[in-house]
Design brief:
The protein is mainly α. The protein has one domain: 434 Repressor (Amino-terminal Domain), CATH 1.10.260. It is 59% helix and 0% strand. The protein has helices at residues 7-17, 22-28, 33-39, 47-57, 62-76. Helix 2 crosses helix 3. The two termini are 26 Å apart.
């Protein structure tokens, strides 16, 4: 896994996979299309916005970060499986 997750690209790829446009997503999340276009060119976005996008596209974009967290933690704890409490 790469050390940097480009979440904007991942979202754009998911939109393409679902045959959806950025304009469609912008309308669904009540966001300006041009500003959403700019945001999706960035490698990070606000978590509240990522949650809205995840719900709208019915896809857990946060899982990419969780996977990386577990991978990075496992590097420092090779004898123990890294676990995180969930609420």
């Amino acid at each position: 896994m790469n050390s940097i997750i480009h979440i904007g690209k991942i979202i754009r790829d998911k939109l393409a996979e679902e045959d959806r446009s950025i304009a469609w997503l912008a309308q669904k999340i009540n966001h300006d299309r041009s500003s959403l276009c700019k945001l999706l060119k960035k490698d990070s976005i606000d978590t509240a916005l990522l949650l809205k996008i995840s719900v709208t596209l019915r896809f857990d974009f946060f899982s990419h970060f969780s996977d990386m967290l577990h991978e990075k933690t496992a590097q420092f704890l090779p004898q123990k499986q890294a676990t995180f409490a969930t609420s």
